[in-house]
Amino acid sequence: MSTNDHVIGKILFTEAEIRKRAEELGEEISNEFKGEELVVIGTLKGSIPWLCDLMKCLDLDTVIDFVKASSYGSSTTTSGVVKISMDTELNLYNKNVLVVEDIVDTGTTLKYLLEKLNERHPKTLKVCTMLDKPSRRTADFHADYIGFQVEDLFVIGYGLDYDQKYRNLPYISYLQNEGK
Ligand code: PRP
Ligand code: MN
Ligand code: MG
Known about the structure:
six-stranded mixed beta sheet; binds manganese (II) ion; glycosyltransferase
């Protein structure tokens, strides 16, 4: 498939594979927080499809909200600057909070976001990411629950964008001719 001079590579993870992983992690998270309430915070916009899969697999009293944190402009390289342009109004004090993210790349976004959320003194604060790209990490951050690890490719689809496009692809692929 080719659009606007971008060549889309092979499928890295199919929808079925992603949903199966969401089920596995959903069960693990449900066991860990058994009998307790969980506040799930999705990061707009990338986490939406993964959050939709994961939340249906949580056998817990669950509250959902969103924050919008962006570290990228309209290029394929990080700006290194995190902007929280939409915040949750939920009271996080003494709550079990799970941040749901699509990808941890340099780790800049989540390191900053978790520092901010920690200021509200949640009981627990954990992160479930669909993808982890450890080869690109510059910030000291690791996720608690990881769907899949990926190589240093510019991944797109299932929420992941290039210049706001490709989020709607029902699989994870990569751009063959773009920076990483
Ligand atoms: C992307 C991605 C992660 C973050 C990861 O979001 O969805 O949130 O970058 O990069 P990092 O680990 O290097 O900080 P982006 O800022 O592009 O916003 P989006 O979710 O709206 O696409
Ligand atoms: Mn994002
Ligand atoms: Mg993006």
